[in-house]
Amino acid sequence: MSRPCVVAICGSLREESHTRKGLGHALDRAAETGGETELLDLREWDLPVYDADASDAGGAAAFTARVREADAILLGTPVYHGSYATPLKNALDYCGFDEFENKTVGLLAVAGGSFPITALEHLRSVCRALNAWVLPHQAAIPKASDAFEGDASDWRFVDEQVADRVAVLGERAVEYATIEPDPPCLESRENVGADD
Predict the structure, then answer these.
(1) Cα–Cα distance list, 84 to 34, 70, 71, 183 (Å)
(2) Cα–Cα distance list, 34 to 29, 73, 132, 172, 179 (Å)
(3) 42 CB-near residues (< 8 Å, 6+ apart)
(4) Which terminus of the chain faces fewer neighbouring Cβ atoms within 10 Å, N or C?
(5) What pLDDT does residue 150 have?
């Protein structure tokens, strides 16, 4: 049996992104538990602002192919104004049912404050509209500026409980990468504009 492929999409463009660190930690655990892993860093992809009349613009075809080939997808975002970040929204707009339907998806939110939950709820709704199976376990890193210690090349989590929650996200992505799909959910059946 082949190893499940887990890709992580980082919704932060910052050089010293805490979101990227968190996703890296989750991918490390995914690899330790038998997954093939890849970080899709949106800084490295040419994805212009989404235009339905130019849905194959830039590197869109290559990007969506990488997502489509995955067995499980981790979505990581910084929290901006209580929701998820524009780069991630733009990347998701290039995707649709072909990339997400019946896929296992794990969610990670990173916040400067102490309440990153609404961004996770918004991402969960988007994934349900694409008929993805979203892991019940989700991870959040609150007060991100205080959550890590060390420098960019040698960092670690300050709080082991946060580190464990993020690691379990990667573990669950591998564990449930091939879960039997559920019947289409109401949200996905009503998402008539998703293929436009």
Answers:
(1) 29, 22, 23, 27
(2) 9, 15, 22, 11, 15
(3) 9, 10, 11, 12, 13, 87, 88, 91
(4) N
(5) 81
Per CATH, the number for 5-182 is 3.40.50.360
Using the predicted structure, report yes or no on whether residue 98 has a pLDDT greater than 90.
Answer: yes
pLDDT digits (tens, 9 = 90+) for 33-89: 999 999 999 999 999 999 999 999 999 999 999 999 999 999 999 999 999 999 999
Domain boundaries, the chain: 5-182
Question: Six-digit token pair at 145?
Answer: 């500026």
- Mean pLDDT across the chain: 90
Query: Binning pLDDT at 50, 70 and 90, where does residue 117 land?
Result: confident
Residue 176 above 60 pLDDT?
yes
pLDDT of residue 172 exceeding 70, the answer is yes
Dihedral sign for Cα atoms in the order 129, 59, 108, 1: positive
Structure tokens at 74: 């981790």
Judge whether 99 and 67 are in contact, CB under 8 Å.
Answer: yes
Give the pair of three-digit tokens for residue 64. 């969506």
Q: Tokens at residue 9, please?
A: 């999409």
CB 145 within 8 A of CB 112: yes
SS3 helix, strand, coil % of the chain, rounded to 5?
40, 20, 35
What is the spatial distance between Cα 104 and Cα 175, in angstroms, rounded to a whole number?
Answer: 10
